[in-house]
């Protein structure tokens, strides 16, 4: 018997809607990916190595973290561990998406996991929360639309940066894209006191621990922020229960 949640809706239309909803993020993805291509070549990687890293990892923040640590002569294990910590947010993204996409076939889930990027998650989860009436098929179609716009741009402009990075004027500072991207992603998701506390604590801790070697301040800031957010959520629950 066919699952009615899979038979209703218009996944094709949802796909193109997701494609359009993620379109504004291309304004950030283009310079961000070009910057990675430039930085990777400056760090000594050739074009093939740069593209291999972009395609295999497909996570800009962790790629920049690993490159920076390797340039600072940090041990490879430290670079890998730092990149893993930066990418742990993807595990949280996955957990948040399970109620919406966990019904998809294994192969589809594997593809969605590989292609998951911050922009696709932020747009999709906001839409799912605002429109709980979406069918299962529409949710899958929508998410695939979000991913299928962002990822090709990431690949293509990483290649452009790797090939012609030395021709980009130094006055054209592409590094503005990273903070703008994460501000645009995180700001709409700060919907509770626990979110706000975690965000503020992460900023304060990153500043406090910035002098630690090999960017280990990132580890400290992430752990501190997670503990602060979790404790705030527990305190709020106890307060509501007592009330």
Task: Kindly describe this structure.
By secondary structure, the chain is mainly α. It has 2 domains: 4-168 and 177-189, no CATH class; 191-243. 76% of the residues lie in helices and 0% in strands. Helix 2 (11-21) runs parallel beside helix 10 (136-164), helix 3 runs parallel beside helix 5 and helix 9 packs parallel to helix 11 (177-186). It is globular. The model is unreliable at 1-8 (pLDDT under 50).
Q: What is the topological layout?
A:
Blueprint: H1 4-7, H2 11-21, H3 26-42, H4 47-57, H5 60-71, H6 76-87, H7 89-101, H8 106-115, H9 118-130, H10 136-164, H11 177-186, H12 193-208, H13 216-242
Helix pairs in contact: 2-10, 3-5, 3-10, 3-11, 4-10, 5-6, 7-9, 9-10, 9-11, 12-13
Approximately how much beta-strand content do the residues carry? under 5%
Mean pLDDT: 82
Low-confidence stretches: 1-8
- How would you describe the shape? globular
Provide tags for this entry.
mainly alpha; 2 domains; globular; AzlC family ABC transporter permease; transmembrane; transport; Brnchd-chn_aa_trnsp_permease; cell membrane
Describe the structure concisely for a colleague.
This protein has 243 residues and is an all-alpha fold. The chain is built from 13 helices and no strands.
